[in-house]
Design goal:
Radius of gyration: 24 Å
Helix content: 55-70%
Strand content: under 5%
CATH class of one domain: Mainly Alpha
CATH architecture of one domain: Alpha Horseshoe
Number of strands: 0
Distance between the termini: 58 Å
CATH topology of one domain: Serine Threonine Protein Phosphatase 5, Tetratricopeptide repeat
Number of helices: 16
Oligomer: single chain
C-alpha cells in the first residue's frame, strides 16, 4: 500500500500546514479547564470507567489529574477520555486538551489524531482538520480509512464536494482500499450537492472496482432522484436493486411513496404498499405520516387519480 507524502497532501488540503495553535478556542478553553481544576469537587466515579462521565466538568478535572501524574498515563488512556468527551459533544474542549497534551510532551497516536480531526470537522474547521492529516504524515503516523472518511465527511458537510472527491481519488491512487463507509460518504455528499448524474457515475464506478453498492448506497441515489422528481429514474434504480438480490428497506420505500404521493401516482403507491406487505416490510411512523397527509389533502377521498 502506498503512503502519502507532503506534496500529495497539498493536492487536496486547502490552507494546509497551518499551525494548530492558531485555533482561537485553545486559550479560552484552557482557561476554562484551569478554572475547573481549581474546583475542590472530587470525581465521584471510577476514573477508568470513562463512559460513566456524564458532564464535562468531571472529565476536565480528571484530565488535569492525569496531566499532573508521574509517570503520565499512556496515550491510550488519554484517548479513552477524549472519546468520552466527544460523546458529550464538547468538541472545542477536546481540541484544547489535545493541545495541552502536546505541551506536556504526550505524543499522539493515530486514534487520538483521528479524534482531533473529527472534532475540527464537527466545529466546521475542515482546514484545521486537514492540517492534522499533514501533522500525522510529519510524525510518521499512517492515516487510515477512518481518517479519510472523517475528512471527506467534513468536506461534504461544508459543501466542498470537489475536495472530498479529490481526497477520495488521492486515497485510491495511493493504494488504500475504500470501504463502504467511505464510498457512501462521498455518494451522500454528491447527492446532497444535487449532482445526480455524478452520483450515478460514482455508483457505477463502485461496481467497476469490484465493490458492490449496498442498500444504503442505492437508497441515497434513489432519494436524490425522488427529491428531484425523477420518478422513472428512481424506479429503474429500485428495480435494479431488487434484481441484484437486495431487499429494499423501509427508508427506500418511504422515499418512493413520498415522491409518488406528491405526484399523485395512486396506483404506484398502492403497488409499493402491497409489495411491502408481501415482503414483510412494516410501515414506520414516517410512512404513515406521508399517507395520512395525502389522505387529508384530498379531503378524505384517498389519492388523486
Amino acid at each position: 500500500m502506498g503512503k502519502f507524502n507532503s506534496s500529495s497532501v497539498l493536492r487536496f488540503i486547502a490552507n494546509g500546514g497551518r499551525n494548530l495553535s492558531n485555533f482561537h478556542s485553545f486559550n479560552t478553553i484552557s482557561t476554562h479547564t484551569q478554572a475547573l481544576s481549581n474546583n475542590p469537587m472530587p470525581v465521584k466515579r471510577n476514573p477508568k470507567l470513562y463512559d460513566s462521565f456524564d458532564n464535562v466538568a468531571d472529565a476536565l478535572i480528571f484530565f488535569n489529574k492525569m496531566i499532573e501524574q508521574y509517570p503520565k498515563p499512556s496515550i491510550v488512556e488519554f484517548t479513552k477520555l477524549l472519546a468520552a468527551i466527544v460523546r458529550m459533544k464538547h468538541y472545542a474542549v477536546v481540541v484544547s486538551m489535545c493541545r495541552q497534551m502536546e505541551l506536556f510532551g504526550i505524543s499522539h497516536d493515530a486514534f487520538s489524531l483521528n479524534i482531533l480531526i473529527n472534532c475540527f470537522c464537527q466545529l466546521g474547521r475542515i482546514d484545521f482538520g486537514s492540517s492534522v492529516l499533514g501533522k500525522m504524515l510529519k510524525l510518521g503516523v499512517e492515516p487510515g480509512i477512518v481518517t479519510f472518511s472523517t475528512l471527506m465527511n467534513g468536506f461534504c458537510k461544508q459543501s466542498k464536494f470537489s475536495q472530498a472527491v479529490s481526497l477520495f481519488d488521492e486515497m485510491v491512487e495511493k493504494g488504500y482500499k475504500p470501504d463502504l463507509i467511505v464510498y457512501n460518504t462521498v455518494l451522500n455528499g454528491l447527492c446532497k450537492s444535487g449532482s445526480t448524474d455524478t452520483a450515478v457515475r460514482f455508483l457505477r464506478m463502485m461496481e467497476e472496482r469490484g465493490f458492490e453498492p449496498n442498500v444504503v448506497a442505492y437508497g441515497t441515489v434513489i432519494d436524490c432522484f425522488c427529491k428531484k422528481g425523477l420518478l422513472k429514474e428512481a424506479l429503474d434504480l429500485f428495480s435494479e436493486l431488487k434484481v441484484k438480490g437486495n431487499r429494499p428497506n423501509i427508508v427506500i420505500y418511504s422515499c418512493l411513496i413520498h415522491a409518488m404521493c406528491n405526484w399523485g401516482q395512486r396506483k404506484e403507491v398502492m403497488r409499493l404498499l402491497n409489495e411491502m406487505r408481501e415482503n414483510n416490510v412494516p410501515l414506520d411512523i414516517f410512512t404513515y405520516s406521508i399517507l395520512i397527509d395525502m389522505y387529508c389533502m384530498n379531503g378524505g377521498n384517498g389519492f388523486r387519480s
